[in-house]
Amino acid sequence: DKPCNGKGCSYDFHPVFTKKPCPETKPPPLPPFDDSLPAGGVMVMRGDTGAMVSCLLPNRDEEVTVIGNSGTLYKRIAAQCCVPVTGQCQRVHKGQCIAQSSRQTNGQIDLYTFAEAKTRCSYILPS
Questions:
Q1: φ and ψ at 122, to 5 degrees?
Q2: Which helix H or strand E contains 6, and what residues bound it?
Q3: In 3D, which of 64, 68, 55, 59 has the Cα closest to residue 114?
Q4: Pair 70, 44: CB distance under 8 Å
C-alpha cells in the first residue's frame, strides 16, 4: 500500500488505513483472536506522505476510526482501497469519494473501522 496522495477527496489531510502489517512488535498476550484485524495489526499512515502514524492491533483497536495525534490536519481515518498485488490504490469509485470528500465536509468524512473499510473495498475492487 502507498498513500494515494493527490488522488482526490482531500484525504491527504487525514490518516489512512493500509493493509501493511505493523512493524515487528511484541504486543502483550491477547484474548482469543478476533479476525476483523489481521494478527499482525494494520498500520495507519499519513494520507500525504505515507509515514506511519499508528498501529491498530487485534482485540484492542477494532472500533478505532480516529487517530488523535496523527500530525494530520484531520483525525478521521479515511478509507482508501488498495489492490493487494500491485499496491495501486483509489479514493474515488464511480465519481464518488469512498468516504465522502474531505473538502466538501470540512474533514468530517464518513467514519469507518478497518473492518468496515475492508468490506466497502471488497465491493469496489476486482477480486
A1: -65, -25
A2: none
A3: 64
A4: yes
CA 22 to chain centre: 13
Grid look-up 469507518 returns 112
- 63-94 residue pLDDT tens: 999 999 888 999 999 999 988 778 788 899 98
pLDDT at residue 88, rounded to an integer = 83
Q: Collapse the DSSP code of 115 into the 3-class scheme (helix H, G, I; strand E, B; otherwise coil) and give the result.
A: helix
Q: For the chain, list residues with pLDDT below 50.
A: 30-35
DSSP state for residue 119 in the 8-state scheme: H
Q: Phi then psi for 119, rounded to 5 degrees? A: -65, -45
CA 11 to chain centre: 11
Do the beta carbons of residue 87 and residue 2 sit within 8 Å? yes
DSSP 57-116: -TTTSTT--B-TTSSSS--BPBP-EE-TTT--EESEETTEETT--HHHHTT-PPP--HHH
**DSSP character at residue 35:** T
The predicted model scores a pTM of 0.73
Q: How far apart are CA 62 and CA 58, in angstroms?
A: 7
